[in-house]
Amino acid sequence: MIEAAIEPARFRQVLGHFATGVTVVTTMDGAEPAGFACQSFAALSLDPPLVLFCPGRASRTWPVIERSGRFAVNVLAEGQHHVSQVFGARGADKFAGVGWRTAPSGSPVLQDALTWVDCAVETVFEGGDHWVVVGRVTALGEPSGGRPLLFYRGQYTRAAPVRADVISWAGPDDWL
């Protein structure tokens, strides 16, 4: 079977229709905090508790996380798009305008994040132009009760609750 080439722009357009949460993955580089904005984050396993995130091969922060062997995933709240933008950019001190404290591992937990997940690097796999990093969860933050910051179709968006009594399920027979 011959596979057709997938154009990167088309791939991005189609996958952009899958809404993702926005996180900031952080660690310490000696006495200095380091971190980057990350949409490629997911829960992987309940037993043992594992998560994964996928930094790009060109990431400047991933080698720091790899050296430290630990990281925290900060789940951003709907009003924190500016935090995502700062941590998504190269250069400048990303922590200059952001309050933070340390998780049990010593990794930074950002002020006003919805919650956080503290981890130790468990396994790393090659994944095309990214790494797939599996982390063993070592501690969990208390959820704040707010709403998450989402990314959908190339822009930030918000989650809106849907009342269960107005949802109508169309089963597989209705899809044809």
From TrEMBL:
Source species, domain of life: Bacteria
UniProt cross-references to SMART domains, sorted A to Z: Flavin_Reduct (SM00903)
Molecular functions (GO terms): monooxygenase activity
Coiled-coil annotated residue ranges, if any: none
Keywords: Monooxygenase, Oxidoreductase
Oxidoreductase as UniProt keyword: yes
SUPFAM superfamilies assigned to the protein according to its UniProt record, in alphabetical order: FMN-binding split barrel
UniProt-listed Enzyme Commission number(s): 1.5.1.-
Keyword field contains Translocase: no
Ranges of residues in domain Flavin reductase like: 15-158
NCBIfam families hit by this protein: monooxsub_HsaB
Family the entry assigns: Belongs to the non-flavoprotein flavin reductase family.
Protein's recorded name: 3-hydroxy-9,10-secoandrosta-1,3,5(10)-triene-9, 17-dione monooxygenase reductase component
Lineage, uppermost ranks: Bacteria, Bacillati, Actinomycetota, Actinomycetes, Pseudonocardiales
